[in-house]
Design brief:
There is one protein chain. By secondary structure, the protein is an alpha+beta fold. The chain has two domains: 36 residues; 127 residues, Sandwich (Immunoglobulin-like). It has two helices and ten strands; from the N terminus they run H-E-E-E-E-E-E-H-E-E-E-E. The strands form two sheets. Strands 1, 2, 3, 4, 7 and 8 form a six-stranded antiparallel beta sheet that branches. Strand 7 and strand 8 form a beta hairpin. The radius of gyration is 22 Å and the shape is globular. It starts with a helix and ends with a strand. The N terminus is likely disordered.
Length: 175
C-alpha cells in the first residue's frame, strides 16, 4: 500500500513539474514589463566564444564632444568563457545615475539613458576598437558635469545568443 502511494505521489509531482513549466518563462519579466527574449542555443564549442561577462573599460570617462554636447565616452569589453575579449552582437542599454555616497546602493536618481544596437555586422564594426579590443560609444546629449562630480554608469547587454549581462562603474567627471 505504501509503495503504491509513493508511486502515485511521484507521478503527481512529475505532472505538476511538467505542467507548471509548460509554456511559461518561469515568471521572469524584464524591467520594461515584457518577457525576456528567448536565448537561441549555439552549439558547443562555439558557445564558449560568446560573451559571458562584460566590463566597463578603465578608459571610460566623461567627455565634451562639441560645445553644449557632453556625455560619456564609454568603452565596453565583452569577455568569453575563457575570460578573453570577444565580439558581441546584440543591444546595449546605457544608464547614467547620480552617485550616492555613504549608501549601500550607490545609484541615485537617473540622469540619462541611451540604447544602441550592434546586431548588424556593419554597426558592430563601427563601434569596435581593435587596439583596446573593446567597443567604443560616444554617449552625448547631456550638459557638462562639473569636474569632480561622481556618477554611476550601468551597461546592460542583451542578445538572442546569450543571457542578459550587466556591468557598472563609478566615474568621476574630469578624470
Amino acid at each position: 500500500m505504501a509503495k503504491r502511494f509513493w508511486s502515485l505521489g511521484l507521478y503527481v509531482l512529475g505532472a505538476v513539474i511538467v505542467l507548471g513549466g509548460a509554456g511559461c518563462n518561469g515568471g521572469l519579466v524584464s524591467a520594461t514589463g515584457r518577457s525576456p527574449r528567448a536565448v537561441q542555443q549555439v552549439p558547443s564549442p562555439i558557445n564558449l566564444l560568446l560573451p559571458k561577462a562584460m566590463n566597463i573599460h578603465p578608459f571610460t570617462q566623461t567627455a565634451t564632444f562639441s560645445p553644449g554636447n557632453s556625455g560619456i565616452h564609454a568603452r565596453i569589453q565583452a569577455r568569453d568563457a575563457y575570460g578573453d575579449p570577444t565580439k558581441a552582437f546584440g543591444d546595449f542599454r546605457f544608464e547614467l545615475y547620480n552617485f550616492r555616497p555613504y549608501h549601500q546602493e550607490k545609484k541615485g536618481s537617473k540622469i540619462a539613458g541611451w540604447e544602441i544596437s550592434i546586431s548588424d555586422p556593419k554597426q558592430n564594426l563601427t563601434h569596435w576598437d581593435r587596439h583596446t579590443r573593446s567597443y567604443e560609444f560616444k554617449l552625448g546629449g547631456q550638459r557638462e558635469l562639473p569636474t569632480g562630480t561622481k556618477v554611476v554608469l550601468v551597461v546592460i547587454f542583451s542578445s538572442r545568443f546569450t543571457p542578459r549581462i550587466t556591468a557598472e562603474r563609478e566615474i568621476t567627471a574630469g578624470e
